[in-house]
């Protein structure tokens, strides 16, 4: 089935593709100019997936408890944040809109897939603005410019507004003949502290999550209404150029270990057409307001990318919501067990998802720290996106395979009184027996489940060379745990003095190995190096 990224430029029914997201970010972010291919991954950031801010190991120490301490100051390009900046951004934006003939009564509060009646915020003071700095990262995930990536801070006035178009001086320059010279613009709304997208009167229009946002009369060349952007949104310009949006805030940057993430849709054969990308990888460190907890996850969609996108937003949000309860949080830390939190989060996520004909795997690694700076990890999963931790040279499997053919699933299904027939390898055409979403087939066959496997808790010993590797089945179809460990060891030996980018390098090595072995499925990889301290990188999607 065709995923959201392959939907046509203009839909006959704008209600067909509702964005089922919540507002928790899955933020990847890079800081700097546009990059192509290998240049996409510059050193780290954090996330929601991430800010690319370099910190020395001394300045990125985790202060366990309620806060993260570190040097996270950003250069403001010589601009002081305050009334002068606010007046410049807002005034110039309004002048630009009026110049292009925009109606005065246009809605400023449109947000597809979310409530439109959210309360309006008053103009913030200078201190509030400095605390709400945001980093926007854009990645072209399909089309002629696939792989192009750029990011900008809300305080970088020299780079704002950010223009998407086919000709210079567009900030995101798209080599797509279906894209107008100046196609769309993204601005930071200082009054509402949010990123907004507006179509600049393009000929072919602009879609946000498959909904048109251009002026109703495309021939008029009038601008559309500004629409709020959220992390995880997909912007479509032309029929094939899809741009993924990642947003993270100032206080979400510090990660106490190295992280590398990368993805590639792959193809069925060498030089062939790329497969539709249905994987989503993400992480959040720290969880909002819960500074000693973070999550890392991969969702591998089937039937489209919709369920994976929904789960990747809702699941971390549910974990964060549960852990805001101080009693439950303390129970996890003191008892060194988050099984109940993970189980409840998966259950609530499944209940919140409305994906009837799309489903996804979900593998989530929860990492937390206690007051003595000891780190712990526990994993939950449905499906076949696997995770293992290597510590002191020993591999600890953190997930369970939920294919219909696996022994554990056959025993589970037999236990509910409806055993599989000899030779039966699929249920309703699916090779997975546990997943999130797929509400329709779950109504047809009670043998499907969304109950997650919960791993043991692993105490991540210091100086043990510990690392975790999460990946979708595109990697595990062609690379064993043992081979993955060998690749990690070899890469570390080749770069003995590398610390800042090593996790990214290892993730790329894994992806290259999957490609060399000719995997025939989307491949997404998250590598976490618990022996290094740094900020982290985003989930880079290979062209």
TrEMBL record:
UniProt keyword annotations, A-Z: Hydrolase, Magnesium, Manganese, Metal-binding, Protein phosphatase
Segments forming domain PPM-type phosphatase: 258-530
Enzyme class: hydrolase
Species of provenance: Gossypium mustelinum
Gene3D superfamilies: 2.60.200.20, PPM-type phosphatase domain
Region described as Disordered: spans on this chain: 97-128
GO MF term list: metal ion binding; protein serine/threonine phosphatase activity
Protein name: protein-serine/threonine phosphatase
Domain (FHA) ranges: 162-213
Keyword Ribosomal protein attributed: no
SUPFAM superfamilies: PP2C-like, SMAD/FHA domain
Record-linked Pfam families: FHA, PP2C
InterPro entries, per database record: FHA_dom, PP2C, PP2C_BS, PPM-type-like_dom_sf, PPM-type_phosphatase-like_dom, SMAD_FHA_dom_sf
Domain of life: Eukaryota
Co-factor requirement: Mg(2+); Mn(2+)
PANTHER family reported for this sequence: PROTEIN PHOSPHATASE 2C, PROTEIN PHOSPHATASE 2C-RELATED
EC number(s) from the headed UniProt entry: 3.1.3.16
């Amino acid at each position: 089935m065709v995923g959201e990224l392959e939907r046509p430029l203009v839909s006959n029914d704008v209600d067909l593709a509702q964005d089922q997201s919540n507002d928790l970010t899955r933020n990847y972010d890079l800081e700097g100019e546009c990059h192509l291919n290998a240049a996409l991954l510059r050193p780290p950031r954090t996330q929601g997936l991430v800010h690319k801010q370099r910190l020395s190991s001394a300045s990125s120490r985790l202060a366990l408890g309620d806060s993260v301490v570190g040097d996270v100051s950003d250069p403001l390009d010589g601009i002081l944040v305050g009334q002068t900046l606010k007046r410049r951004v807002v005034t110039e934006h309004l002048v630009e809109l009026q110049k292009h003939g925009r109606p005065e009564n246009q809605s400023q509060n449109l947000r597809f897939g979310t409530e439109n009646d959210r309360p309006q915020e008053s103009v913030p003071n200078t201190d509030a603005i400095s605390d709400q700095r945001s980093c926007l990262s854009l990645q072209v995930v399909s089309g002629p410019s696939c792989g192009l990536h750029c990011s900008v801070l809300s305080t970088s006035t020299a780079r704002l507004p950010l223009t998407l178009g086919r000709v210079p001086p567009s900030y995101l320059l798209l080599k797509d003949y279906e894209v107008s010279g100046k196609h769309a613009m993204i601005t930071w709304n200082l009054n509402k502290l949010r990123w907004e997208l507006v179509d600049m009167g393009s000929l072919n229009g602009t879609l946000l999550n498959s909904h048109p946002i251009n002026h109703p009369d495309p021939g008029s060349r009038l601008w559309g209404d500004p629409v709020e952007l959220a992390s995880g949104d997909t912007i479509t310009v032309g029929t094939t150029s899809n741009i993924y949006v990642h947003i993270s805030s100032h206080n979400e940057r510090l990660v106490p270990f190295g992280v590398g993430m990368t993805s590639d849709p792959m193809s069925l054969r060498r030089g062939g057409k790329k497969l539709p990308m249905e994987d989503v990888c993400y992480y959040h460190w720290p969880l909002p307001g819960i500074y000693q907890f973070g999550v890392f996850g991969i969702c591998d969609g089937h039937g489209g990318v919709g369920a994976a996108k929904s789960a990747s937003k809702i699941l971390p949000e549910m974990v964060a919501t549960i852990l805001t309860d101080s009693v439950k949080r303390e129970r996890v830390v003191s008892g060194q067990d988050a099984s109940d939190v993970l189980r409840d989060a998966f259950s609530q996520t499944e209940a919140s998802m409305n994906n009837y004909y799309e489903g996804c795997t979900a593998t989530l690694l929860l990492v937390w720290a206690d007051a003595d700076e000891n780190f712990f990890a526990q994993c939950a999963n449905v499906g076949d996106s696997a995770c293992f931790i290597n510590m002191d040279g020993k591999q600890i499997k953190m997930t369970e395979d939920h294919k219909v053919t696996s022994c554990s699933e056959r025993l589970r299904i037999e236990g509910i009184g409806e055993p599989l027939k000899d030779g039966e390898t699929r249920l309703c055409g699916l090779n997975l027996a546990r997943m999130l979403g797929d509400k329709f087939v779950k109504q047809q066959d009670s043998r499907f489940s969304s109950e997650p496997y919960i791993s043991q808790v692993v105490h991540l010993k210091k100086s043990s060379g510990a690392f975790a590797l999460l990946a979708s089945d595109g990697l595990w179809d062609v690379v064993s745990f043992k081979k993955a460990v060998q690749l990690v060891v070899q890469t570390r030996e080749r770069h003995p003095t590398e610390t800042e980018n090593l996790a990214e390098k290892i993730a790329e090595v894994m992806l290259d190995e999957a490609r060399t072995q000719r995997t025939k499925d989307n491949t997404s990889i998250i590598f976490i190096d618990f022996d290094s301290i740094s900020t982290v990188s985003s989930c880079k999607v290979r062209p």
